Request: fold
Amino acid sequence: MGEMLGILLLILIGAAFWHQRRQAELAWQYMRRYCQHHDLQLLSLARSHRALAHQPLRLLTYYEFEFSSDGESNYQGQLRMQGLHIVGVDLPPHRMPSQ
Reply:
């Protein structure tokens, strides 16, 4: 019985790992397209933390990303995901490149 629980635990850990990797890849692809669409340069993306949101009750994953709008300065924004779905993107006020 203990061996069965150990195998089940390993399967659950593996599934959680693969889900997390898939979520990170989707976050990277989304932010790359988002930055291209808004004429921004994506510098980095990293998972920040997870939190339990209320109304409705759900688990959110937060990603912090750095971007540049003019090639000289950089800013930090935040991406929120619920499972494999994008919930929102928060950008700070940033300087727009001169035309």
In short: The beta strands are 41-53, 58-68, 75-82, 85-90.
